[in-house]
Amino acid sequence: MGSLLHFPDLNTAATTNNNSPNKIIQPKLEPLDSVIDSDSLAPPPGIPFPLSQTLIQNPNPNSNSTVYSEFSRISELFKTAFSDKCPQNDVVLSPNALAIVPVDEKHQRQGNVSNVGRVRAPQHSSELVRVTDLSIEDEKYFREVVRKTRMLYENLRVYGNLSDEREMVSRRSRNDLKASAVMRERGLWLNRDKRIVGAIPGVEIGDVFFFRMELCVVGIHEQPQAGIDYLPSSRSSNGEPIATSIIVSGGYEDDVDTGDVIIYTGHGGQDKGFRQCANQKLECGNLGLERSMHYGIEVRVVRGFKYEGSVSGKVYVYDGLHKVVDCWFDVGKSGFGVYKYKIVRLENQSVRGSLVLRFAQNLRIRPLEARPRGYVCMDMSMKKENVPVLLFNDIDGDHEPLAYQYLVRSVIPPYVYQFGSGGGCNCVAGCFRDCVCAMKNGGEFAYDEKGILIQGKPVIFECGPHCTCPPTCRNRVSQKGVRNTFEVFRSRETGWGVRSLDLIQAGAFLCEYAGVVLTQDQARVFSMAGDNLVYPKRFPERWQEWGDISQVSSNYVRPSHPSIPPLDFAMDVSSMRNVACYMSHSRSPNVMVQFVLYDHNNVIFPRLMLFALENIPPLRELSLDYGVAEEWSPKLAICN
Fold it and tell me: What does pTM read for this prediction?
């Protein structure tokens, strides 16, 4: 273990350097992120603020396992570290100084508990804890908590964008900042009652984020701009700062990132143009990283970089736990002194999310070069989709998906079009809120300007063949077909599954769930013959989750219009199907079913359109809640 005293203090030279007498020393910031000011933190104008109450999200009542542990080992490290007198300055530190302490039982499961009312956000706790030995039940619980928190954040951000659009704001607001400010004020940031060392419960390696503030909301990295997140010495039980996470984004010229090994430059000494202008000091986050090395405390690593398909132009991906193994003071490329840290990734973790993102980029451009074996078919849709649907199997010789006729859209009985058919809107250049189709949806369009679903509804009316608006109309999202490169793949664990080579934004349209629509009487005959039938009425109403801001707004009312009667039809997918039919079943899915009508007005036979419930990284399996599969059944029978 290194010691604080082993590092030379060159800060005196920095203060007397005549080449940079009055330079401003800035913390390690993200070059592409805007400065956060008080105006940016105002609530989004499109939501009924101020809010009168916040709902409390109760912890899991069924879990009684102790999930915060391993305090004794870390405590012993501290006792050992402070048991001897420091040789160079004769300062004796208390052998009982502890930075990581156990958590009171009443705080063990309250990482997601909100404060009631419009109150000042509590100060972040100075407790350092590590979460270990999670049961399967705990992992599911925390994953669901993170999923719902991120969904609420994205819903608030989308509503803010919609408000800007309505008010015809020329320069869009930073609604990513406003959404996080609202959630922080309502006590909805996770893990505010503790500072977690190591993995955050419910966050998986490879999870992607489009905005820095979402990292703060989830609790991965709680510095809005600084690259080093740490517990300040003023709040540490032993009076020393402890680093818990870093963001690697190339903001410093001396950074070297080779994947599992990072040479990370400390913060400070930069001017507002992100140019090194002074020597760095061993303080704050810099000292925190050195102390984390000294005590063997792991740090979380998030990588940020530009990425095609990101709504912000940039993506942040969680890459797992690393250890600081070395620290030294060096002269950087600019000629000024900088602190450098060698940070090594811990073994036995999932593949780095940033590596998967890079690999997916190569797959989209040169699939056979990036993955020379395993492709069975380069387009199982036979050019019926806008984008090829790949078929991949490097497990066995099963080519079963090629035995079926590929459907792009469901086959609906002809008589359905004779009921409730009528004219569409008369819009020419594009549709507006006062057009006929908007009125069918309650006076609002279901999608924003970029085609992202704003709020789930019982059914969405899109412009159809009888409308005069162009194909580019914003109210024709699901008719524009598949825009992502999907891959049906073979897995040893779950049989056939589906993943995307593209980064998918939450609320984005994926594809239609296609089959042959059968009446109730036809379904009885087909089920007797043993064919595979899917019943739309059995899909849980996951659309209710998308756009639900009841946790922050007491005025929120769940959409009930347009209403539809119970659906009695079935879909036969035994001989004709599409890529959607191979999606896995999950009780915490990342894809939902939204009913849509556009080519007829018969509400008894809507189309089943699939939308993303969360940001889905490339090559992560897509999942649906079928509502009928057993808890431990990974898929319906048709997919096995």
Answer: 0.81
Which spans in 519-611 are helix H?
520-528
- Distances from the Cα of 477 to the Cαs of 451, 462, 499, 595, 609, in angstroms? 6, 8, 21, 13, 10
Query: Which value, to the nearest 10 degrees, does the dihedral of the CA atoms of residues 622, 457, 417, 607 take?
Result: 10
Res 243: pLDDT: 93
Cβ(500)–Cβ(635) under 8 Å?
Answer: no
Q: How confident is the model at residue 377, as a pLDDT?
A: 95
Q: What element of type H or E holds 183? A: helix 175-185
Q: Name the amino acid, one letter, at 217.
A: V
Residues in contact with 100: Cβ distance below 8 Å, sequence separation at least 6, in sequence order: 71, 74, 75, 78, 128, 129, 130, 197, 297
- Please say whether the beta carbons of 285 and 267 come within 8 A: yes
What is the pLDDT of the chain when averaged over all its residues?
79
Query: What's the rounded Cα separation, in Å, for the pair 271 and 33?
Result: 15
Task: Please state the separation of Cα 372 from the chain's center in Å.
Answer: 30
Strands 314-331 and 208-209: antiparallel
What is the rounded CA–CA span in Å between residue 20 and residue 222? Answer: 31
Which phi and psi (to 5°) does residue 496 adopt?
Answer: -90, 145
How many CB atoms lie under 10 A from the CB of residue 588?
15
The count of other CB atoms within 10 Å of the CB of residue 412 is 17
Contact indicator for 179, 164 with CB cutoff of 8 Å: no
Q: 């050019």: which residue's tokens?
A: 383
Structural domains of the chain, with CATH? 43-358 (2.30.280.10), 378-639 (2.170.270.10)
Helical spans, DSSP H, in 575-632: none
> Phi/psi of residue 147, each to 5°?
-60, -45
Residue 624's Cβ-side half-sphere holds a number of Cα atoms within 13 Å equal to: 32
d(CA 361, CA 185): 38
Is there a contact between 165 and 447 (Cβ–Cβ < 8 Å)? no
Pick the closest to residue 193 from 300, 288, 98, 121 (CA basis). Answer: 121
pLDDT tens-digit profile of 480-493?
999 999 999 998 88
The pLDDT of 405-415, averaged and rounded, is 93
CA separation, residue 618 to residues 170, 206, 249, 431 (Å): 33, 9, 20, 33
Sign of CA dihedral 549, 551, 555, 560: positive
Q: How many helices (H) and strands (E) does the chain have?
A: 10, 26
Question: Reduced to 3 states, what is the DSSP secondary structure of residue 436?
Answer: helix
Q: Which two tokens stand for residue 481?
A: 């077909």
C-alpha distance from residue 254 to each of 231, 242, 250, 264, 616 (Å): 25, 23, 9, 8, 32
What pLDDT, in 10s, does the model give residues 181-220?
999 999 999 988 778 899 999 999 999 999 999 999 999 9
